[in-house]
Amino acid sequence: MVNRHITRSIVISIIIFTANYYPAIAIEIDRLIPVEDYTPSSECGQCHRQVYSEWRGSIHNSSHLDIIYQADLGRMVKAEGVAAKRICVACHAPLAALAGLDGYAEEKSLPLEARLGIGCDFCHTIDGNFKDGGIVYDFFPGETKYGPSQNLSDAPHPVKYSAFQNSSEYCALCHDTDHILAGENYGGTYTQWKYSKYNRVDSVTTCQDCHMSFDLISSGPRADSIEHSNHYFTAANTAYPGLIGTPVHNSIAVESLRRAANIKVAGIKEIGSGEEYIFWVTVHNKGAGHLLPTGLPGLRQIWLSIRILDSNTRELLYSNGEVDSLGVVDTASCFIGADYVDANGEVTDKVWEAAGVINDNRIPPGETSRFKYSYKIPEDYKGEMVIFAMLNYRSAKQDFINEIFNETPDDMAVVQMDYYIHKGIKVR
Ligand code: HEC
Ligand code: HEC
Ligand code: HEC
Ligand code: HEC
Ligand code: HEC
User: Fold this and answer.
1) pLDDT, tens digit, for every residue of 119-141?
2) Cα dihedral sign for 100, 106, 108, 114?
3) Which of 117, 147, 255, 350 has the fewest C-beta atoms lying within 10 Å of its C-beta?
4) If you measure from the C-alpha of residue 131 to the centroid of ligand 4, how many angstroms do you get, rounded to a whole number?
């Protein structure tokens, strides 16, 4: 077997990308790796049936076919030319990048395994280690499969235990980017995790602990024996239900979003008509091991919707944070998120132009944010009010979706992450 460890680095897109922008990560191969060196996932699936069926509906399997990504890629090719594809392919179609097929013109010209996205064999032939404060990744396509278990003796192919496969640093290969092209790495999902309470000297909860553990998303360390690591690779993306994943994947995304946060409303219980009613909504990141939301700033959208009703008549007195008939969220809502800015400091939703983030109020793991609301009670109103507060998520803003697709697209699915009812506010 060819050892693709450190010798001389060939310049492929992953190296250009990471060496320039992510000095903590180095990828070392001594030659380009043809796509055929990797076994198609369907062959692994003949024995690893359960894992295969979970992975098949995952976004890893379609990270390069994903219609939202493809539409965005199309927009970029129009603006920057076809060669710019190599920036994106590095993570979305890593076999193409390793084979040097990254600046291709036609999707069809890519071999199938490379076109799909991230397959079994790519992931199970990676090893890595730490050097000079950074992470070094090695790629060893071949007979031996790297896995999380020690002393496995019943496999029909050689297996090698790799502690690295159990580490968050493994996922950092692709999940530590904010899709940035210029400037510093300002902290992707891995960096957010690295400096969080989930990465302490005495206790570490890895990406795998939460995202691949048997009960799907746990909020604590797993039992020692890994019975089965789930391969659903789904956490939040419910985009266009039915177009990505299966109903199971969709419900895992919803479940994981619901475990991520909870909200509360606080305000006094008695007030006079005509007065200003001040109340606070708190949002607590209880379950995400990184900022809430993580992923792509400018795309992912979390916001609060508020309704104040008359408790008896159910008449709507006030609302904020509704989605209109065109799928656009009320701009006066309290949003939780961040935006990309380009090199001129302008807000952009073009990931290839991103040079930094602004308007960042994402919530770190374990922390709580407070939002202040004030409602002027009508002079002639007397009675009892109730406040309904809802925390909502969707994986892309409607105007982004409208822009990347030419035809009138469906509305993006909205997931209710949590709600709170603040009852019994007496208006004298
Ligand atoms: C994105 C990378 C990635 C992909 C794609 C992937 N795996 Fe895994 N797999 C992992 C990691 C990481 C672990 C160890 C997880 C842990 O620590 O629990 C693992 C664990 C396993 C295990 C051992 C535990 C178990 O569940 O029995 C097997 C077998 C396995 N994977 C097979 C496969 C097969 C077959 C495919 C394709 C259908 C696949 N993997 C796709 C990363 C991946
Ligand atoms: C002929 C059946 C068969 C095929 C084909 C096969 N495997 Fe396996 N593999 C096994 C068995 C059996 C084990 C032993 C442990 C188990 O059951 O998960 C195993 C173990 C593993 C492990 C170690 C898991 C751990 O817990 O550390 C990994 C990783 C793995 N296989 C990946 C793959 C990948 C990737 C492919 C395709 C390139 C593949 N296997 C193809 C049957 C197969
Ligand atoms: C080779 C690059 C690569 C590696 C390695 C990788 N991922 Fe991913 N992952 C991606 C890409 C690209 C996407 C998004 C694809 C898309 O949305 O089009 C993704 C998506 C995901 C999602 C779905 C997010 C959602 O919105 O629901 C989860 C969960 C995830 N990855 C977890 C992991 C974990 C855990 C690991 C480590 C065990 C890992 N990934 C390793 C590239 C990678
Ligand atoms: C303590 C559990 C926990 C840990 C640790 C954790 N996550 Fe998550 N992750 C979640 C939850 C809950 C969500 C859903 C809420 C959200 O989107 O942030 C999520 C969401 C995600 C998403 C989807 C974001 C989106 O909006 O598309 C990705 C991708 C992801 N995690 C990757 C990772 C990676 C990579 C790591 C390790 C560096 C990691 N996670 C560590 C719990 C965890
Ligand atoms: C360093 C790895 C990496 C590179 C390079 C990269 N991406 Fe991504 N991309 C990801 C990951 C990881 C996700 C999933 C993010 C999440 O949900 O947290 C993602 C998700 C996306 C999504 C959201 C897809 C969805 O269904 O919601 C779009 C759009 C996207 N990428 C476009 C691009 C474009 C265009 C490029 C090239 C300019 C690019 N990406 C380059 C890693 C990368």
Assistant:
1) 999 999 999 888 777 788 889 99
2) positive
3) 255
4) 26
